[in-house]
Amino acid sequence: MHQHEEQNTNRVAVREINDRKRGRLPLPPEQKRKRFSLPLSEVERDRLHNEAMDAGLPLATFIRSAALRYEISNVPEINREKWGQAARWVGNFNQLNHSINSGRVTVLPEHASKKLCSDLEYLVEIVQLMRKEMRDAKK
User: Fold this and answer.
1) Radius of gyration for the alpha carbons in the chain, expressed in angstroms and rounded
2) Which residues have C-beta within 8 Å of that of residue 61, sequence separation ≥ 6?
3) Which residues contact 85 (CB under 8 A, 6 or more apart)?
4) Cα dihedral 10, 11, 16, 20 sign
5) pTM tops 0.70, yes or no
6) How far apart are CA 77 and CA 92, in angstroms?
7) Hey, which of 21, 49, 87, 121 has its CA 20 to 30 A from 74?
8) Which of the four pLDDT bands, split at 50, 70 and 90, describes residue 48?
9) Count of CB atoms situated within 10 Å of the CB of 126
C-alpha cells in the first residue's frame, strides 16, 4: 500500500470513530418524533399561543399535551422566573458533566468545587420551594 492510500484509510477510520462519538445518541423508535403540519386560522393560532404562554409552555408542547389529553398545569407567575433560573443552572451543570465525561475537564479547582456545591444546594432549595408553591396553588 502506498503512503497516500494508507493516509486516506487512516482518515476514514478516524472519521468513522469520531462520527460515532459526536452528537446525541439515537432515540429508540417509540421516542422519535416526526413533524406534523396543522393549518390554523390566525385567530386559532393566537388563541393557542396565548394559552401556551399562560401555561408557560412552548406552543408545540402545549398542542401536543392538549391533543394527547396530558394534564396541563399552569406555572404560577411567581415560579416562572425561578424555573428560568433553575433551567439555566441545570444547563450549566449538564455542560460541565459533558466536559468531565469527555475528558476535557479532569480536575476542578477547589474554589470552583465549593461554588458548584453551593449552587447545587441553592438549586435544590429553589426546586423544593417551587414544588411547595405549586402544591399550595392547587389547593
Assistant:
1) 23
2) 52
3) 126
4) positive
5) no
6) 24
7) 121
8) very high
9) 16
